[in-house]
Amino acid sequence: MVESVSRGFRLREVNDSAIGVAQSLPGVLAARNAGAGKLKVTYDIAETDYRTLQEALRRHGYPGPTGRLQRLRDSWYQFQDENRRANLEHKPACCSKPPPGASRRK
């Protein structure tokens, strides 16, 4: 099952090379130039996450903004990816039965 998410990465310059870097990573479903210095990437959170994409872009010479608001946004996106991945891995209760011990009252 693919659990996709789309994120925008602000870069000084978005060109074919930046799109190629993003598309070369496992789990990336699509990458495109969204205009105004923004790279739009759709990826499967079961295979990759925001921080991995961000670090790959930086390693290849595409650093994004580093201000306080951007660091907050980066942390928020990474938290969302980790939370969604944890929800995918969670095993639900079977057949609408509560887990053992849930029906005991004190």
TrEMBL record:
Q: Where is the composition biased (Pro residues)?
A: 97-106
**Region of interest called Disordered, as start-end residue ranges on this chain:** 83-106
* Basic and acidic residues: bias regions: 83-92
Q: Under what name is this protein listed?
A: HMA domain-containing protein
Q: What is the lineage of its organism?
A: Bacteria, Pseudomonadati, Pseudomonadota, Gammaproteobacteria, Thiohalomonadales
